[in-house]
Amino acid sequence: MNQIVYKKTKGLTDTELSYCPGCTHGIIHKLIGEILEELNVIDRSIGVASVGCSVFSYYYFNCDMQQAAHGRSCAVATGIKRSRPDSIVFTYQGDGDLGSIGIAEAIHAANRGENITVILANNAIYGMTGGQMAPTTLIGQKTTTSQAGRSEALHGLPMKISEIFAQIPKAAYVERVSLHNPQHVLKAKKALKKAFTYQMEKKGFTMIEFISTCPVNWGMTPNEALKWAKESMIEYFPLGVYKDSGDEHE
């Protein structure tokens, strides 16, 4: 008898991913699909796709999807959740989409305690639109709009999004995870599943920030990008739980 060792999750469609080689968006997609399947909520889940590299994610997730204007994912998700409160609603956003044009929508959704899950892919750059400097671009990092490297004097410090959202009283759960090796992928899945579970338990706003990679715009090979994420990004963006309302009530 043949034993099934691995089976693709039903949470994803059969559409081939369009992401660049070495990009970790695909890993995040896989984790989301697996969790939706494991929680048996695919048929009542609604994802909100942002503008950026994730703009075509509605082709990949095997659940209802809604496209939002650039930065407006949390506002759209709020409307969906309030009109369909029994649905599992999540946004999928990049650091430019959430941290720049969409920062107001995201902060106010958290401040209201909207019962949605925000998934943030932080690759420290604008990926799809040309490799511009993002709110999370590191000091000294070169982009198409910071060709001499990001300067603290000119551009300010990179935004620590998880730390900011953890200070909001009605944020129920905020954690930063990474995808630079298999061990951390497993930890990331555990964190993401907890976020979705909190939403099912109606605990409020949850956010998981993924340290992600962008080999093409970083000018690196996939292996170099994973190494840089581990050695440079995590040094400035430490991994860990920044807010957990469940722990607070224990």
List keywords for this structure.
250 residues, alpha/beta, Rossmann fold, 10 helices, 7 strands, 17% strand, globular
What does this structure look like?
The structure is a single chain. The termini are far apart. Helix 7 links the parallel strand 5 and strand 6. Helix 1 crosses helix 7 and helix 3 packs across helix 4. 38% of the residues lie in helices and 17% in strands. The chain has a seven-stranded mixed sheet, sandwiched between helices. The model has no long low-confidence stretch (mean pLDDT 95). It is globular, with a radius of gyration of 17 Å. The chain has 250 residues and is an alpha/beta fold. It has one domain: 3-Layer(aba) Sandwich (Rossmann fold), CATH 3.40.50.
Largest beta sheet: strand ordering: 2-1-3-4-6-5-7
The number of E-state strands comes to: 7
CATH class: Alpha Beta
Q: What sequence of helices (H) and strands (E) makes up the elements?
A: HEEHEHHEHHEHEHHEH
Number of helices: 10
**Count of individual domains:** 1
Work out the radius of gyration. 17 Å
% residues in beta strands: 15-25%
Give the termini distance in whole angstroms: 47 Å
Helix content: 25-40%
CATH homologous superfamily heading: Thiamin diphosphate (ThDP)-binding fold, Pyr/PP domains
Structural class by helix and strand composition: alpha/beta
Low-confidence stretches: none
List the helices and strands and how they pair.
Blueprint lengths: L24 H14 L6 E5 L14 E4 L5 H11 L4 E7 H7 L1 H10 L4 E6 L29 H4 L5 H6 L4 E8 L3 H19 L4 E7 L3 H4 L3 H15 L3 E5 H4 L2
Parallel strand pairs: 1-2, 1-3, 3-4, 4-6, 5-6
Antiparallel strand pairs: 5-7
